[in-house]
Amino acid sequence: MAANSKRVYYKQDRLKQLRAFCHSAATGRISKAAERMFLSQPSVSLLVRALEKELGTLLFDRHGPRIHLTPAGRRLYALAAPLIENLENLPALFIESFKRVVGGDLHIAAGETAALHLLPDVIREFSRRHPGVRFHLHDAGAQEGLALVLANEAELMVGTLLDVPENVIHRPLTACAQVLITPPGHPLAGGKEPAPADIAAFGLILPPRDSCGARLVNRVFEQLEIHCPITLEADGWEVIKRLVARGVGISICPAMCLSGGENLAAIPLTRHFPRRSYGIVTRKAGNPSPAAGRFIELLVEMSGAGKPPVGAAAAGDP
Description:
Elements: H1 2-27, H2 30-37, H3 41-55, E1 60-63, E2 66-69, H4 71-88, H5 90-100, E3 104-110, H6 112-117, H7 120-129, E4 133-139, H8 142-150, E5 156-159, E6 168-176, E7 178-182, H9 196-200, E8 204-206, H10 212-223, E9 230-233, H11 237-245, E10 251-254, E11 265-269, E12 276-283, H12 290-303
């Protein structure tokens, strides 16, 4: 037991001796080495002399306050300096090397709008830069995506939330207007922006009532004290667009959902309906993996978002 303790102490002492020697050689003064090591000057002198005694040779020529390496000292410095530099920079080197290792599985939760219109270009570019990452895209609305993030089953959600809990971070990415879509030739098509009461007269096709899309639209009518019947509930804007194009009804959807090639009339709603905000949702606890961190950076870059993460509520993805 005593031998093991002595061996551990010896290794620790050797490292101190080499640090004292290297800093003294680099600065040319024992006093400067002491400042770098946060030790007293006599302590550094003792460490250097102990190393010289152990190696059986002088490492410095001492003339006044300045010291100069002997031939033996120059040889030892060439061997020891890279070792000491790497040891002292080990935390920074480790963090940097860890950041460069981008691979493994990346789980992302996203609603239909984000998955179809925000993520494809970013995923394609990210895969080109980091081919070792395997994507797992979870089709999830706002609440389902939030649950996946909080359960650590997804590292991030791309979409938005009407209410941002305290244990997550929401970083805004982009926003778009809400648009009334109708079949061509509909009474509300082709004119100026219709009033909410005129829209309510026809009723709406919307996503399920607990989705962010439906809640946002219904909230406007409730605030205006206008009854707007929901004529049909359907999952997903792609389905809703097809139903509208077939003349089943009209709807209000995010402008981002429209490619311009649909057989629809589209009228932006800017007077009463809020813009739809989309962003990144992550847990406050813990750090993202290198892959998630790099993906978030690229997503922010490609979306043109430069705002810092916020905890304020924002409009959301169905």
